[in-house]
Each structure stands twice: as structure tokens, then as C-alpha cells.
Design a protein that fits this description.
It is built from twelve helices and eight strands. By secondary structure, the chain is of the alpha/beta class. The chain has two domains: 31-191 and 335-347, Rossmann fold; 194-327, 3-Layer(aba) Sandwich (Rossmann fold). β7, α11 (302-318) and β8 form a beta-alpha-beta unit. The chain binds the ligand C=CC1=C(C)c2cc3[nH]c(cc4nc(cc5[nH]c(cc1n2)c(C)c5CCC(=O)O)C(CCC(=O)O)=C4C)c(C)c3C=C and fe (ii) ion (FE2) (2 copies). The ligand C=CC1=C(C)c2cc3[nH]c(cc4nc(cc5[nH]c(cc1n2)c(C)c5CCC(=O)O)C(CCC(=O)O)=C4C)c(C)c3C=C binds next to α3, α6 and α11. The ligand C=CC1=C(C)c2cc3[nH]c(cc4nc(cc5[nH]c(cc1n2)c(C)c5CCC(=O)O)C(CCC(=O)O)=C4C)c(C)c3C=C is lined by residues 37, 39, 61, 81, 85, 98, 100, 156, 160, 162-163, 222, 224-225, 263, 265, 296-297, 301-303. Keywords: Cytoplasm, Heme biosynthesis, Iron, Lyase, Metal-binding, Porphyrin biosynthesis. It comes from Yanghanlia caeni. This is Ferrochelatase.
């Protein structure tokens, strides 16, 4: 390595870089970078430990001072949690891999194909905030494809610092190392987007047609620590916008809609009401049937297929409830893929 090796990443060679009268630049398709949270490579303790170590070392996710938290993480969390999670991940694993990865990929590929049908060429890539494929590898693929403009689409309808902001930070970490930076746009949130809400409502109605309507429809969102909302995270407000939009779109059946927050982690207070205690209380007070959906997750994952479909259902039945039917995430739903393509199209550059 030369003493003067560049601290910046190598750029694709431009044969006309020094030409006095260069030919016009070749047209380049915009890049679209879809980002989701990430998931272990395999449902094994080793792969889960690697994933959790990266995820839970993110100061956007755990805001306890790092020196203290790293001791707790390495002494108490990482030696135990991966073993407890491995059988649960095995239970939800699809033949093609982790549901979160498989469904996110279907969305990224589906949008590229849908836009192609509309005569719009884009280069879509998927990057995961933690694990693989990494955001850096996806950004590199967009660089290698010659994308001069990149639209970043975090696959979170509701903004949270622990999901959206950390994804944006990671993209900047990559572009900071580039000499020839692309032009960038970022989608921040879309909690009440018409196409998103219509796709959710269509899936609720299809479920009701097949199984009938339960007494209540529970919309369960991933929680975050309450203090982070008090400090300015707009996540709760975004979740409530989604709840209101679904309720309105359901008309009379909107009266069945309730919301709660799941997946509490650690000892702090999180957003309330909590999903599992809510279901237990409903069962004890005589509610017999519930439909449950997780509108904040665009792809099924451990938090939906295990926590809601299995654990929360068991808790509801244990307390005397009769049926809890889980309505799957939008995943590769063609109506949703078209709606996501609309979101992308509306945010693309209009001039070449
Ligand atoms: C959809 C939005 C999500 C928010 C907001 C969120 C915040 C958040 N999560 C944790 C801790 C964990 N989350 C875990 C899994 C997980 N979380 C999301 C999404 C959001 N998290 C998804 C899609 C997944 C599933 C990944 C999969 O592989 O299927 C986990 C790992 C599982 C476990 O150990 O229980 C943890 C831990 C915190 C602390 C947090 C906000 C501060
Ligand atoms: Fe989470
Ligand atoms: Fe969880």
C-alpha cells in the first residue's frame, strides 16, 4: 500500500475524466435503496449472536452509555439470548430463508419490475441495517451500476430514530467515504399513505371474508422506550396516524379497531398499552375473538410470526379467549408492491 493511499473509496474509471472536450455523460438509471432492519443469516445461536451483537451495539437502539451497556450485553445478553431465540427463529424460518429478508427482497424486486412495466428504469437494491446484505454492499452495487442519483426508502411506514434514523446514518457512513458522491433523496415516513392504507384494509377485508369478523381488531406496533418519545421521537404520533387512517377506511367496522405496542426489551417503560397484557385483560373481561395485525411491519418476522401469532395467541387463550387470528404482513402482496412503486415514482427525479 502506498504511503499516500486514498482514504476514499475507488470510483469506477472514467476514460474521459481529463478530456478537454468530453462526450456527453451516458444516461444512468436512478438507484433505489430499500432498507430493512436485518435478521440472522441462519437460525443458529452463532448467527443470532453475531446479529444481536451488531444490532444491540447501535447507540440509536440502546441509549444507555456504551461502556456500561457493553458490559451488560457481553456478560448477560449475548451468552443467553441467542440460545433462547434459536428454536423460535427455526420455527418461523421459510424454505428460502428468514421471512424478513425474503419478503423485503420480494418488495425491492417487485418495485423494480412494476416500474419497468410503467416504462421507468431504476436499479433497485436491498440493504439491511444489521447483517446481510449490508447497506455498504448495496450502496457499492449502486455505485458499480453507475447510479448518479439514489432514492433511499427505509421500509418503515412510521419514523423512529431506532429504525429510520440509524438506517440514514449508515447510508451517510458510506457516502462519507466516496469522492464522487451521488445525489441523494430519503423517504422519511408514510404512515397514512393512501396506497399503504388501502393495501392493509384490503387484506383485513379479505381475511374477514374468509374467516368472519372477530369482536376486536388489534393493531400491534413495535414499541420503543417512552422516554425517547418524550425527548422528541415522533414515532407514537406516526403510529396513531396509521391507526386513524385504517379506522376511517374501515367505516362502520372502524369501531372494532384498537392499538397496542409489543416487543418490550429491557427494564424501562415502553409505549403503552402493551400488546400481551392487553390481550390477557380482554380475555379476562369476556372478549372471545380477536383479529391481530402488525401494520408497522411491512414484512413478517420473528416479532409477528412468533410473538403475535404464537405467544400472544397462547396468552389470550390461556386467559379464556377462544380465537386469535393473525393477519399476515403485506410481504409480497401485489397491491402493496404497486403502492410502494407509486411512493418511489412520486419521489424520483423528473428531469433526466
Ligand atoms: C418496525 C419497527 C421496529 C422498531 C421501532 C424497533 C425498535 C426496537 N427493537 C428493539 C429490540 C429488538 N428488536 C428485535 C427484532 C426486530 N425488531 C424489528 C423492528 C423494529 N424494532 C424487526 C423487524 C425485528 C425482527 C427481526 C427478525 O429477524 O425477524 C430484536 C431481536 C429479537 C429479540 O431478541 O427479541 C430485539 C432485541 C429495541 C431495543 C428497539 C427500540 C429501542
Ligand atoms: Fe425491534
Ligand atoms: Fe420480540
Amino acid at each position: 500500500m502506498s504511503l499516500f493511499a486514498s482514504r476514499y473509496l475507488a470510483e469506477p474509471a472514467d476514460p474521459h475524466a481529463l478530456a478537454v472536450d468530453p462526450p456527453p455523460r451516458p444516461a444512468s438509471a436512478p438507484g433505489v435503496l430499500f432498507i430493512n432492519l436485518g435478521t440472522p443469516d441462519e437460525p443458529t445461536p452463532t448467527a443470532i449472536r453475531r446479529y444481536l451483537a451488531e444490532f444491540l451495539s447501535d447507540p440509536r437502539v440502546i441509549e444507555i452509555p456504551q461502556p456500561v451497556w457493553q458490559v451488560i450485553l457481553r456478560l448477560f445478553v449475548l451468552p443467553r439470548r441467542p440460545h433462547a431465540l434459536a428454536p423460535r427463529y427455526k420455527d418461523i424460518w421459510w424454505e428460502e430463508g428468514s421471512p424478513l429478508l425474503v419478503a423485503s427482497r420480494q418488495q425491492a424486486e417487485g418495485v423494480q419490475q412494476e416500474l419497468a412495466r410503467r416504462g421507468i428504469t431504476v436499479h433497485a437494491e436491498l440493504g439491511m441495517r444489521y447483517g446481510n446484505p449490508s447497506i455498504a454492499s448495496a450502496m457499492q452495487a449502486l455505485r458499480d451500476a453507475g447510479c448518479e442519483r439514489i432514492l433511499v426508502v427505509p421500509l418503515y411506514p412510521q419514523y423512529a430514530a431506532s429504525t429510520t434514523a440509524t438506517a440514514v446514518d449508515k447510508v451517510h457512513e458510506y457516502t462519507r467515504r466516496r469522492r464522487n458522491q451521488p445525489e441523494m433523496r430519503f423517504i422519511k415516513r408514510f404512515p397514512a399513505d393512501r396506497g399503504y392504507i388501502d393495501a392493509l384494509v384490503h387484506s383485513i377485508q379479505a381475511h374477514w371474508q374468509q374467516h368472519g369478523k372477530a369482536e376486536r381488531l388489534l393493531l400491534s406496533f413495535h414499541g420503543i422506550p417512552r422516554v425517547t418519545v418524550e425527548q422528541g421521537d415522533p414515532y407514537h404520533r406516526d403510529c396513531m396516524e396509521t391507526v386513524r387512517a385504517i379506522r376511517q377506511a374501515l367505516g362502520e367496522d372502524g369501531a372494532r379497531v384498537h392499538h397496542a405496542f409489543q416487543s418490550r426489551f429491557g427494564a424501562q417503560e415502553w409505549l403503552q398499552p402493551y400488546t400481551e397484557p392487553t390481550l390477557r385483560e380482554w380475555a379476562r373481561s369476556g372478549v372471545r375473538s380477536v383479529d391481530a395485525m402488525c401494520p408497522g411491519f411491512l414484512a413478517d418476522c420473528l416479532e409477528t410470526l412468533e410473538e403475535i401469532q404464537v405467544e400472544c395467541r397462547d396468552a389470550f387463550i390461556e386467559e379464556g379467549g377462544e380465537t386469535l387470528r393473525y393477519i399476515p404482513c403485506l410481504n409480497g402482496d401485489p397491491q402493496w408492491v404497486r403502492a410502494l412503486a407509486d411512493i418511489v415514482q412520486q419521489n424520483l427525479w423528473h428531469s433526466p
